[in-house]
User: Fold Xanthine phosphoribosyltransferase from Acinetobacter soli.
Amino acid sequence: MYALEQKILTEGIVLSDQVLKVDAFLNHQIDPVLMQQIGKEFAARFKDTGITKIVTIEASGIAPAVMAGLELSVPVIFARKYQSLTLKDDLYRSKVFSFTKQVESTIAISNKHISSTDKVLVIDDFLANGQAALGLIDLIHQASAEIIGVGIVIEKSFQPGRDLLLEKGYRVESLARVASLENGTVTFVKE
Ligand code: 5GP
Assistant:
């Protein structure tokens, strides 16, 4: 997606060979116009698949997921990373090892919002080792719902997440595919 790649090139900050910071438009400040374009792109890629729900993870998956939900006219559920007081019982839970924080945390969604008849699109901001996406997929499986695919805003294609998901048979649609962050420079996969 050209507009997203240009935004990454102009406003992304390469923190290391492994980590890209996009606090200027996705992870802290949010660019709503770009998010709307991202929502339209996800909707176009997954149109005619019968999606009934989108599942993402707090906090940075919410903006792109809501925009995709708006375009597809379906509800968006975000998995919570802790068990809050109002989200105690009747939970589907999974453990996720965080790439950026290097700690394991429990993610959870209420079983009230997802059922076996749902066809679910998983959306997240980044794909690195695939642990967040696999955790979300685990929650959806616990509900016996169908997984239509995984939509990613920024995939780091030099890390194993994409291949892991493809090997397990999931469709992966990434709007920007980063080939390398070496020498402080972002390069994209040529498609
Ligand atoms: P994974 O679970 O695929 O290893 O990592 C994906 C999760 O880690 C995303 O939800 C995202 O929050 C975070 N993440 C992974 N790589 C990056 C990165 O380069 N930059 C930022 N800002 N977040 C990342």
